[in-house]
């Protein structure tokens, strides 16, 4: 290897290492702060290793009136409900837009897709008004209903994948007497496992970290999600940063476990969303 090429490769790896450091540093800082006492956090440098390590922040998080287990359970319930709803309704809508012939199909699809251009904050007040009048404020259904019936991004992602499935397979199934739902269940869905895994992972991460809607539609601790409960640990006069960092570590743990288990699926999902 020539010296210029070696220098070029060294520069590339240096940039990659710098990018890795910038990306990972906030998580390391959060983790180290979670194992510090408030006095250590105040008196030691931010990037110093806790000396000694302490687990009092985690014990305080799961004891007394804070009861951080409840927000984790609520968030898990919300994520499971939304994932099921997104998969069922997005698959049905995407298949209709991709393979079922009906009048104004493409026009309706592009109008619906255009709602991606509307910021979420624009619909927050109308949604809150509707749910309040329906008596769904501070309820489980109030948390999940706005996201239960699919989303423009999910339908767009699935539609493009369904359109890439060879028409010959669907025609052959139709010649064998299969109806629309039979084709969808027996042909399209088995061939779409990679994109369905992608959608599941994206939905889990986005709704586990969802903050704005749970903050607005809930009050009190009954239906607090992880993000709202973590924000609630801060008060006007006390940041409680060591406790907050312990809460963020607990909130990150399920996503890290998800990544460890479905590592291959996540990598393939990045490839699919990047090249399909």
From TrEMBL:
GO aspect biological process, one term: transmembrane transport
Domain annotation ABC transmembrane type-1: ranges: 72-262
A Pfam family reported for this protein in Swiss-Prot or TrEMBL: BPD_transp_1
Transmembrane annotation, as ranges: 12-35, 68-97, 109-128, 140-162, 183-205, 241-262
Cellular location(s): Cell membrane
InterPro entries, alphabetized: MetI-like (IPR000515), MetI-like_sf (IPR035906)
Family label: Belongs to the binding-protein-dependent transport system permease family.
Protein name: Multiple sugar transport system permease protein
The organism's taxonomic lineage, starting at the top: Bacteria, Bacillati, Actinomycetota, Actinomycetes, Micrococcales
